[in-house]
Amino acid sequence: METVATMPHDAVFKNFLTHTDTARDFLDIHLPEEIKAICDLSTLTLESGNFVEESLQEQYSDVLYSVSMQGHPGYLHILIEHQSTPSKKIAFRMMRYAIAAMHRHLEAGFQQLPLVVPILFYQGKTSPYPYSMCWMDMFASPELARRLYSEPFPLVDITTIPDDEIMQHRRVAILELLQKHIRQRDLMKMLEDLVTLLSAEYTTESQLITLVNYMLLRGHTDQPKIFYRELGRRLPKEKTMGTVAEWLEEQGILKGLEQGIQQGMQQGIQHGMLQGESNATHRVATRMLKSGMSPEFVAEMTDLTREEIDKIPDWR
């Protein structure tokens, strides 16, 4: 029978700290007063599972307890460091585990993030513990990190930026304009702005092909043949856009889009995509792949599965 002297640190730790009354005493003694004041330790409940990655389980063990914090669900995550030499990265690791516990809480159906209090139990050779317990101190500039992570994150809400302002955004202007209006505006109403931006020659040929396919697959217009032909005619890169417009018409896509106006654009796209000797969706995908786009991106743009993408011949 294994004795206490030879049992791993992990077994000793979990034998004691998974006993709720023992854990309650531990927390009552060691929690900072301001945190203990918001915790109702009578509600302490042992939770299943752990967050330590398998590769580190010889060095760390953990126990998770749920607890009521001012009437809201919260958690106390106790981590023990078994290794004799302490780790400088422990505070960041504890933050990762806390976020993992928050994620599991949301996955269980809760709508609000819980407070998760990470607690390190240390029994190594070096004394006292030599490293900061604030994960932000691991940054080259801790003060900048504190400002960044204590304030709202940057937001680019393209829906609120005026079109005139977007038009001044150089190489990202056409991306932002299309992303802003692709769901609700007729492409024909954007023609002038699109020609202006594309004529500035900020857009690479690969990006141009991407935009054409994006407009085809996600945009809508009551005059698709006129739109694509006019766009190609008015651009400096007439050969590229003209070829695209002719190819779309040849494959029956523009015809299908026009026929679909009376039935609804989505049905029209589906009808157009089925014209020709082979499925035009695969032809669109092939062009995108040959232009250097990733299979994952092409799958997203065309609604083809990754398996269907992999079966497309002659693109690798």
TrEMBL record:
Residues 8-208 form the Transposase (putative) YhgA-like domain. It holds the Pfam family Transposase_31. InterPro entries: Rpn/YhgA-like_nuclease, RpnA, Transposase_31. It comes from the Bacteria. Signal peptide: none annotated. NCBIfam families: T_den_put_tspse (TIGR01784). PANTHER family: INACTIVE RECOMBINATION-PROMOTING NUCLEASE-LIKE PROTEIN RPNE-RELATED, PTHR34611. Belongs to the Rpn/YhgA-like nuclease family. This is ISNCY family transposase ISRor2. It comes from Pseudocitrobacter corydidari.
